[in-house]
Amino acid sequence: MAEERVIKIGMLGLGTVGTGVYKVLKSQQEEMLPKLGARVELKKILVRNVEKAAAKVDDPSIVTMNFEDIANDPEIEIVVEVMGGKQPAMNYILACLDAGKNVVTANKDLVASEGKKILAAAKRNGKDFLYEASVAGGIPIIRPVKQCLAANHITELMGIFNGTTNFILTKMSQEGMEFGDALRLAQDMGYAEADPTADVEGLDAGRKVAILASAAFNSRVTFEDVYTEGITKITATDIQYAKEMGCTIKLLGVAKDTPEGIEARVHPMLIDSNHPLATVNDSYNAVFLTGDAVQDTMFYGRGAGELPTASAVVGDIFDVVRNILWNCCGRIGCTCYRECPIKRVGEIKSKYFVRMQIENRYGTLASVASVFGNNKVSIAQMLQKRVNGKYAEIVVITDEVKERHFEDAMQILGGMSMIQEISSTIRVY
Ligand SMILES: NC(=O)C1=CN([C@@H]2O[C@H](COP(=O)(O)OP(=O)(O)OC[C@H]3O[C@@H](n4cnc5c(N)ncnc54)[C@H](OP(=O)(O)O)[C@@H]3O)[C@@H](O)[C@H]2O)C=CC1
Ligand SMILES: N[C@@H](CC=O)C(=O)O
C-alpha cells in the first residue's frame, strides 16, 4: 500500500483567525485524505504569549516563540500568516518564500501595500502566495475573480467590505445602539482589527478594495490609491433622516475601470432601502461585480469572524496542498499585466446629502443656493427640517457633481457667518 502523504504546515499567529484555522483543520481531519490525497499536519505555531496559546491547543509543544523553528524546518511546506500588521509579517513571509515554502495569508494590510513585491518573491521561488481571506472574510472572491471570471473584462465592483462597520451601522440603525457600545460588541465577537481605527475610518475596507480592484482590473491598485472615509461622523440624526428618505446608510467600497483611469474609494453612502446592499446586515459583506461576458454577479456571506475567515484560509491551504501533490505551485501568481492610471477623487462624480444649521432669516436659503450654483453644484432638493431658535436645520440633496466642485462649495459655505455648522455631508447612491 502506498505511504500516506502528510503535508506539514507552520502558522504565524493564534488569535481569532489562527484559532479558527486550528479548529477547521481539526474538523476536516477525516475528510482531508479522500478530499485532497494527503493529510495536513499543523507542526508549529508562532506566538508572543506561549501560555495563552498553549491553552488553546491539544499539544502545547507545537507552540513556539521562535520564528526560526518554522523558517528553518525543511519539513514545513506551507506557512500560514495570521498575525497581522506590516512588520515582522512582511519579513517573515519573504523569508518563508525564499526558504522554498508556500504562503497563505489573511493580511490585507500587507497585500494591499506590498502585494506586488510579495507576489514577485513567490514567482521567483516558484511558490504559491494565496490570500483569499484578505477580502470579505469567508466570501470566495479572489479566486472567483482571478479564475472563474477570467474570461471577462470586469468594469466595476461595489460592495460592503467591512464586517465591523456594517455590524455597528446595523446596531445603530435597528436597535438605536450607541456607536461605542456597538464597536465594543464587534470587538468581543472577533470582527475588529487589533486597532479598530482601521475599521471605523474605512482603512480596512480601502485595503480590500485595493486588493480586489487589482485582481479585477488586472492593474495594480494599492491602498494609497484608494480614497477612504469612515463612519465616525455618522450620527443617529443622519440615520433617522436617511430612514425618512427611505434610505439606509452603508459603508461602501466602489472601484471602476474607466477610460480616464481606475477610480477606487470607500465612504458612507445613503442607498435606497430596497437596494439589495441595504439588506446586508451585521457582519455580513456583499460584493457586486460587473463583467462584459457574465454581466452582473453578487457575492454574499460573513465578512469577518473566527470560522468564516478560517474557511477561506483553509480553502487556500487545501489549494496549495493540491498544487504540491501535482507539482504545480506558483500556478496562479500576479495577474496585473496592465498599468492603468488612478483617477483623482476630485474628478469623480457623486450625489450628496448635506445637513446644515443656518440662520433662520430671509435671504439665507437664497445665499446657500447661490453658493451651490456658482460652484456648478445643482440642487435636486432643499428641505427645511426644523427650527431651533435663531437657527434652522436644512437638508440639501444635490444632483451628480464633480467632487472638486462640491468641495469648493463646502469651503465657501463653511466660511459664511450665516451658517452655524455643516453637520454632515454623505454621498447618495
Ligand atoms: N478577525 C477577522 O475577522 C479577520 C482578520 N483578518 C486578518 O487576519 C489577521 C489576524 O487577525 P486576528 O486573528 O483577528 O488577530 P488577533 O490579534 O486576534 O491575533 C493575532 C495573533 O498573532 C500573534 N502575533 C502578533 N504579532 C506577533 C509577533 N510579532 N510575533 C508572534 N506572534 C504575533 C498574536 O500573538 P499573542 O496573542 O501572543 O500576542 C496572536 O496570536 C490580520 O491580518 C487580520 O487583518 C482577515 C479577515 C478577517
Ligand atoms: N476587521 C475586519 C475583519 C475582516 O476582514 C472586518 O470587520 O471586516
Automatic annotation (TrEMBL):
The keyword Signal does not apply. This is Homoserine dehydrogenase. It catalyses: L-homoserine + NADP(+) = L-aspartate 4-semialdehyde + NADPH + H(+). Keywords: Amino-acid biosynthesis, Methionine biosynthesis, NADP, Oxidoreductase, Threonine biosynthesis. Its EC number is 1.1.1.3. The keyword Lipid biosynthesis does not apply. It comes from Fusicatenibacter saccharivorans. Pathway: Amino-acid biosynthesis; L-threonine biosynthesis; L-threonine from L-aspartate: step 3/5; Amino-acid biosynthesis; L-methionine biosynthesis via de novo pathway; L-homoserine from L-aspartate: step 3/3. Belongs to the homoserine dehydrogenase family. It holds the Pfam family Homoserine_dh. Its cofactor is a metal cation. Residues 353-427 form the ACT domain. InterPro entries: ACT-like_dom_sf (IPR045865), ACT_dom (IPR002912), Asp/hSer_DH_NAD-bd (IPR005106), HDH (IPR016204), HDH_cat (IPR001342), HDH_CS (IPR019811), NAD(P)-bd_dom_sf (IPR036291).
